Amino acid sequence: MTRWMKIALAGLGLAGLAYFYYTEIKPVVIFGLRDDYARAIPYQAVPAGLDSLKAESCGTCHREIYEEWKSSIHAQAYDDPFFQAYWAKDKHIWVCLNCHTPLENQQPTLIKEIPRGRVERAVQEVNPRFDPDYQKEAITCAACHVRDGVIHGPYEDSAAPHPTKFDPSFRTAQICYRCHNVVSGPAQFYNVGPCGTYAEYEGKYFMQERGFICQSCHMPEVDRPVADGSPIRRGRRHLWRGGHDPDMIKRAVAVEVTAEPRRPKPGDNVTFTLTLVNAGAGHKIPTGDPDRHFTVEFDVEDASGRVVAHQQDTMGRWILWQPAILELYDNRLLPLASRDYRFRQKFPGGAERLTVKARVRYHILTDGQHEMLTKKYGLTADDPYSFVIYERAFPLTDDLPGLLQAASGSDTQACRADGKAAG
């Protein structure tokens, strides 16, 4: 056998292995299939006493809850332009709908079989009870509250014009488990899969000592009538503010900036230290989609506002997507953890004046991902995808110690178990 024939055979062998890997081993989605979200929530009939499963029908009595739901990311989980662009990128694979439109009533096909867990080979048939209008309601009331013709909820003594049942999972974090604990699959080497916030939840301090569950921050408690005309009782707001809400990010993060030496002299090198603390989240920050990250930035500006020096550090997850999904490293902050970011600048003398600006920015996705989604997958939303959550300017003058003292700590606050702000 000649040398070239050996090379050709080796090339064919490698090509065959690559084909086998990408068609038989590596899945087409970036997460694994767990039994309880591999299929939609089974078809739900309208409970007696109601005229529809639509959220608007629930809103005739539960008016405040309905208005809160309408403003939430749950209500927008299907129509959201970012989801639609990402879903187009993933060739509209059906499995994404199991969390974004989780009821079988909302899905155009029925999944009869998933051979060897391969979502692209699923046996599907037309769903005769699919309601395309209902699909647009995304994570709607019935997705959590309706099972087998009965309204499930957190109260043991409900009295309503429809069947009700106490479900203790509403009083725990378990109710969030199905969609917020996406796991890794074959040829995927995550510590925690995408959308894995539930698995990151740190229960020891936040749950055992402070009484936190997911709902403590994302569905804060409120005293009000649960339905029109009903007595006032303690319930929860149906808001689910989270990783898309800059105010929620600010509540989770505390920032402090210090400098050494405290009273610099002309010619000294001043070291600024920005300390970033996960002060208010019971999970890592950032969490959820792997594209989310923080940048900590220092800019030095001259008297005219021109940037003469810049330093940037990033906190997030770095994942290799090809040929296997491999989490290279994860430097996000655990609950109550902190990290210092340092920057050095010479303290000027004479008439020269410089200003150091310290900034923390939160990014829902990277600039590259945003450009790709816009150019290739039809993202049209002009919603901001990065937010400044902290910014302070420190002129390098003799007043520096006072400026640092005035800016010490943070104007952000953590979340208490009752859902209110706490220092």
Cα-based radius of gyration, to the nearest Å = 26 Å
Tell me the number of structural domains.
2
Low-confidence stretches: 409-414, 416-423
Largest sheet: 4 strands, antiparallel
Within the largest sheet, what's the order of strands? 12-11-16-17
DSSP E strands, number: 19
Average pLDDT across residues? 89
Beta percentage is 25-35%
Question: Structural class of the helix and strand makeup?
Answer: alpha+beta
Give the termini distance in whole angstroms.
77 Å
| Outline type | flat
Q: Share of helix among residues?
A: 10-25%
* Helical stretch tally: 13
Pfam families: Cytochrome_C554 (PF13435)
InterPro entries: Cyt_c-552/4 (IPR023155), Multihaem_cyt_sf (IPR036280)
Protein name: MULTIHEME_CYTC domain-containing protein
Summarize the structure.
This protein is of the alpha+beta class and 423 residues long. The protein has 13 helices and 19 strands.
How would you characterize this protein structure?
- It comes from Nitrospira tepida.
- It holds the Pfam family Cytochrome_C554.
- With 423 residues, the chain is of the alpha+beta class.
- It has 2 domains: 24-236, no CATH class; 246-422, Immunoglobulin-like, CATH 2.60.40.10.
- It contains 13 helices and 19 strands.
- Helix 4 crosses helix 12 (367-377).
- The longest helix is centred in the first third of the chain and has 23 residues, at 3-25.
- The chain is flat and about 80 Å long.
Features:
423 residues; alpha+beta; 2 domains; 13 helices; 19 strands; disordered C terminus
